[in-house]
Prior knowledge:
mainly beta
Amino acid sequence: MANIINAQAGVGLTQTADGSGIVKLQSNGVTTNALAWVTFNGSTATIMASYNVSSITRTATGTYTIALAVSLSDANYSVVATSGNKLSGGTAYGVVTVNDNALTPSASGFGILVTNASTGITWDLLRVGLVIFGN
Length: 135
């Protein structure tokens, strides 16, 4: 659950709270803000900054498990990702995807895979950013 502020047509603002510390801003019952985000070093899996992410585990080169501090209401969320700065330099680009093969997304976490956009080979990047939207 969460602390929910909902703007609903014909009703106005309503607020409910459960003490979890997670804030959901809603419009007609649909959450409109990010429920978690993180920036981390892909080589060390060290979190640089985050909200509602408790840990990053590097399970192999370019493969990570993300654990949420407070679980979401379900696993039907969207993950938006950015990446940059290949560890050994270079100009190739990374692609970040949710890795359903390694870990089925759940309300408490998910896996990602970072690959080289040109070769498809997994790799570690100095910076990976994730934003999670859901309900």
